[in-house]
Amino acid sequence: MPPQGNKYSVLLPTYNERDNLPIITWMLVKAFKDNELDFEIIIIDDASPDGTLEVAKQLQQIFGEKHIVLRPRPGKLGLGTAYVHGIQNATGNFVFIMDADMSHHPKFIPDFIKKQKEGNYDVITGTRYAPGGGVHGWDLRRKLTSRVANFLADTLLTPGVSDLTGSFRLYKKEVLADMIIATKSKGYVFQMEMMVRARQMKFSIAEVPITFVDRVYGESKLGAAEIVGYVKGLWTLFCDI
Ligand SMILES: Nc1nc2c(ncn2[C@@H]2O[C@H](COP(=O)(O)OP(=O)(O)OP(=O)(O)O)[C@@H](O)[C@H]2O)c(=O)[nH]1
Ligand SMILES: [Mg+2]
Prior knowledge:
The protein is α/β, with parallel strands linked by helices. The protein has a single domain (3-240), classed as Spore Coat Polysaccharide Biosynthesis Protein SpsA, Chain A, CATH 3.90.550.10. The protein is built from eight helices and nine strands. The relative contact order is 0.16. Residues 9-178 form the Glycosyltransferase 2-like domain.
């Protein structure tokens, strides 16, 4: 048995990530094994046209069904519901949420866990915008968009978290379940609303610095429509709380 009997479930939503999935999976397995932690990686693939699920099945053969759990869905149903679907299948008492495109590096996993233990926190959120954190590989436009998105959210909603739009986080499972129920928005606002709700619900939150790199393979999906959607969602949230 691992120390303290903790188990970490990683929710990994994928859509067209066949090139990134093997690397991220291998790195995750290494991070957990090197630190003697009990874990499972739940891959939630939404019928990716590039055949990500086939790659996931091969990874399950390599690393075993105990560690790689496949929970595919029949179509692209969005990130918010992918997390709900994932958590319903999680058997750990802690849940990591991260992207599968290598923007979130598994080497930070031990930092999250160490920080969580320090104060028995409910939520640990990775931040690019605190000393030690950073962003690599983004052009000025993308950096500005992210900064402005964070600034707007922080000004309007003041949740006191330095990186609101990031999604590399560790949660106590029951806390995540409660927060997901309370969170209404979909799309890019989802991550931010989660932190606003966490504060409202008086959960304890701590941050760890992370460096974020641009996705390794594949195309970015952040366009004008997502930005407009974000601002609208932010406003709705502002009026709601
Ligand atoms: N299951 C599922 N996963 C999704 C969906 N949309 C995105 N993802 C995955 O969610 C993670 C984050 O999405 P990204 O497309 O990387 O979003 P982003 O980081 O804001 O933008 P870029 O990295 O610039 O493309 C990645 O692992 C995606 O493969 C979806 O509808 N369903
Ligand atoms: Mg990404």
